[in-house]
Each structure stands twice: as C-alpha cells, then as structure tokens.
Design goal:
six-stranded mixed sheet, binds adenosine-5'-triphosphate, 2 domains
Amino acid sequence: MSAELVGVRVELGGRAVVDGVDLAVRAGEVLGVVGPNGSGKTTLLRTLYRAITPTAGAVLVDGRADVSRRDLARTLAAAVQDPGVTSAALRVVDVVEQGRYSHRRALEPLRPEDRAAVEAAMAAVGITALAGRDVRTLSGGEAQRVSIARALAQQPRVLVLDEPTNHLDLKHQLTVLQTVRALADAGVAVLLTLHDLHLAVRHCDRIAVLDRGRLVDVGPPAAVLTADVLAGVFGVRAVVTDRGLDVLGLSPPVAVDG
Ligand SMILES: Nc1ncnc2c1ncn2[C@@H]1O[C@H](COP(=O)(O)OP(=O)(O)OP(=O)(O)O)[C@@H](O)[C@H]1O
C-alpha cells in the first residue's frame, strides 16, 4: 500500500502554495513532512486525503487515481489540526465510533469487531477514561487524542496526521508517536507533519522538507536535515547528531544591541 502525490500543484487565493511536489508514503514507514509556517504542509496533506483537488498533478493510492470515496475511506484515515470534535453534544466514544462508518452499512449497529477497534483506539492514546465525556468539555490535548483515536479506529492502511503532537504533553507525545511506530511496523503507511524537529528526527524513517510550497529534499533525517537546510529553510544554526538535533541558535546570528 502506498499513497502518492505526482507533480502536484495547488493554487489557493490565486497563488501556488504547493508546487511540483512528488512524494510517496509507503507501507511500513513513518514519513514526516517538516517546513516553516506557511510552507504548504497542511495543504499537501489535505491534497493527499482529497480534501483539496490539485490544480495540476495526480494523487495515487496504490498507483491508482480512480479510487472511489468509499474505498478511500476504507483505506486512508486522517486526523487534522482542527478536528471539529468539540462542535456538537457528542460523547467521546461516539466520535471515535465515527471511525467505523466506512466499514459498516448505513444504520447497521456496531459489530463486536467495531467495538474492539474503538476500544483499542481509545486505549492506544489513553482516552478510555474519557469515553462518556461530552467532547465540548475536553482540553485541547484531550480533543486532539480523540481525533487521533477516531482515525485509528478506522484501521487504515494509510494514516495521515497533521501536527498530531502540538497540544500534547511529553508523555502523550511519546504515546502517540509510539503508537504510530507500532502501526508502521504492522505495515501501515504513516504520513505526518511535525513542527518539532527533535521529534521528527527521532520518530520518522524519512523526512520531507517543504519550503514555500516546494519539496527541498526527502530522505533519512540525518541526510536531509543538514546544517545548510536547517539554516536556509528554518533559519536556525543546528546539527543532527547521533543523539538527535542540537539547535545552537538563530542563523544568521541576530545582532544584539550594546
Ligand atoms: N484557503 C486559502 N486561501 C488562500 N491561501 C491559503 C488558503 N489556505 C492556505 N493558504 C496559504 O497557503 C500557504 C500554505 O498554508 P499551509 O496551511 O499549507 O501551510 P503549513 O506549512 O501547514 O503552515 P503552518 O506550519 O503554519 O501550519 C500559507 O501561506 C497560507 O496562508
């Protein structure tokens, strides 16, 4: 299983925010997309899960462009930055059960395997105790984990996560990233965006660097996040070592008065 963008260009508000991007996420890997604010990461993910139609290029799932909405929903799950899980009076478990829609016929009750998938998804991100809570009462990090659990309950073969750790405390960041690793080890293709380059270096098999809508490079973290890329794209002086990423300061150095 793979999901692929081929020569993708996306124009929004009259300008290209993603341009000429070729990128494939493959079964068994965690592929991280990193880049500065506004570089096109969310747009790229939205294009892959077909929330946006590209201006040019193709989106392929297992090499095919003609996948139906229903087949796509059975194959690919996404947890996005603004999950909207807090807009209606639903319990946490109701939202996670939405992840089973694509596996059932309309109005069919949940089957034992659906319930098992929902329970496993909630346990994986530590929200079992929140099952009966009104989603409108959740904290940002709790709501984010509900959104991720809904995607996990879908048991997708391609999992797309937009900033899955941005509201999470350290323990839950690790919980989510370890869950992602276990899924990849089980053969799921995982594509995620991360702002935290430390997490990206540690938890991604490959990293794609976006800058102003263009793909700068894609490959293993240490090969891609070179000092030049970190300076040129992110504006920081930093190096990737065996221990991870060391950020030394801003690049070029900021002049300090006095
Ligand atoms: N609907 C829209 N209309 C016009 N411009 C848009 C629209 N959506 C996004 N953009 C612009 O497209 C660019 C890429 O946005 P995108 O959200 O993909 O970036 P990002 O890399 O995910 O950013 P961040 O790190 O801040 O989340 C930004 O300059 C943004 O302002």
